[in-house]
Amino acid sequence: MFEVSAEIVSNERLTHDTWLLALRSEKIAQTAKPGQFVMIRVSLGLDPLLRRPFSICAVKEDLFLVLYRVVGKGTSLMRELRQGEKLQVLGPLGKSFSVPEKSFSRLLVGGGIGVAPLLFLHRFHREKVAAFMMGFRSAKDILSLQKITGEERGFAVATDDGTKGHHGPVTDLLAEFLRKNSGDVAVYACGPKPMLRKVAETTLALRIPCEVSLEAHMACGLGACQGCAVKASANSGRSYFYVCKEGPVFDAEEIDWELI
Questions:
Q1: Are 110 and 89 contained in the same domain?
Q2: Which of 1, 133, 205, 219 is buried most, with the most CB atoms less than 10 Å from its CB?
Q3: Could you give the CA distance from residue 121 to residue 61 in angstroms, rounded to a whole number?
Q4: Within a domain: 242
Q5: Is residue 258 part of a domain?
Q6: Alpha carbons 32 and 37: distance in angstroms, whole number
Q7: What is the pLDDT of residues 162-204, one digit of tens each?
């Protein structure tokens, strides 16, 4: 973990409400692993005071990239950031996705901005990825992967309104894939909690290994404030987990999905 003053290299709009921020920090870019995140002080001043958490979606030499959706004051301010400015960044933080000991095929399932850590994972395990499924509200929300990863092919898309790809939730694509394919597979997922709950239900019922990256409000990113607690499952031996310190990546079996 490092605390750095990272230079803004670019701040590009991808959709009507989603942006891609590229920051220069050799320390973070060279040590980050898929699933980890950074805490960014989004303003050059003190308002807002607290840092915001963002998953790392890619690294390119000495650059690391984060996706963000404009939803509040902090991310609204981020739209105004310009090339050459610097931001205070803490990271990389959190637990990364694991690499299965067995030769599993990877299925990646992302919803909305939750595709961010999976894009990073895809780069590391491209040859083992059997399918990368992404869900969005509408065609206008679909991200240009060409601008993030340099490639557009090999991804399956679902939209809630049916304006592009499968008409329905991305979990439909997962269920269909698992009906048609057998063998050793492992699922990695990130997105809205209802989506993750459905992924967990599907994989646990079929005894398929599954890791989920949870999104949570964080004030510190280090486990000190205890503001990102999630209820642990009965067989985990724990009462709660703290997403920032013990996650954000968890085995699906560790989480009490009834309380998510």
A1: no
A2: 133
A3: 16
A4: no
A5: no
A6: 8
A7: 999 999 999 999 999 999 886 789 999 999 999 999 999 999 9
CATH number of the domain bearing residue 49: 2.40.30.10
Q: Which amino acid belongs to residue 190?
A: C
CB neighbourhood size of 137 (10 A):
13
Q: Which residues pair with 55 in a beta bridge?
A: 37
Half-sphere exposure in the Cβ direction for 67 (13 Å, CA): 24
**3-state SS class at 200:** helix
State the greatest distance between any 2 C-alpha atoms of the chain, in Å, as a whole number: 54
Q: Which two tokens stand for residue 44?
A: 């050059």
CATH value at residue 127? 3.40.50.80
The reported pTM is 0.94
The verdict on residue 147 lying in a domain is yes
Residue 249 structure tokens: 């990546």
Q: Please report how the helices 170-180 and 193-205 are oriented relative to each other, as an axis angle in degrees rounded to 10.
A: 10
CA distance 186 to 102: 10
* For the chain, the helix, strand and coil percentages under 3-state DSSP, each to the nearest 5: 30, 35, 35
Q: Which residue range is the domain that position 17 belongs to? A: 2-93
